[in-house]
Amino acid sequence: MQKDKLRTIRKQKNYTQQHVADALATDVSNYSRKESGDVKITEEEWNKLSKFLSVPLEDIYEEEASKKITNEDSQKAPSVTPEDDLNVELIRNLLDYIALLKEENARLKVESKK
Predict the structure, then answer these.
(1) Start and end of every HTH cro/C1-type domain (predicted)?
(2) Which of 19, 45, 48, 100 is the most exposed place for a label (fewest CB within 10 A)?
(3) Residue 48: helix, strand or coil by DSSP?
(4) For the chain, which domains are there?
(5) pLDDT tens digits, residue range 50-77?
């Protein structure tokens, strides 16, 4: 579910997705997926967004649409819970952070050899 309230306020305040991504300590592509509703925004991130945009949480918050997988067969289909989205998001964020640390380590190694 696209976060229209969040997008509208962000644009009204003349912030780019990059500005907001920096405030959340994530990359712009990850933030873009959050704003478009592809990736869940955590409670902590909602609070950071509210503070960064200087607006009450209720002005930007939109509930996550629950996702359910259905199966045409008579077998019971597994459901996808918000916790599953959170785990995927956490893994993506950790991978992004690892990549950032590797870049920083490489830069520091080059600097230390000078």
Answers:
(1) 6-60
(2) 100
(3) helix
(4) 4-65+78-113 (1.10.260.40)
(5) 999 999 999 999 887 665 555 555 556 5
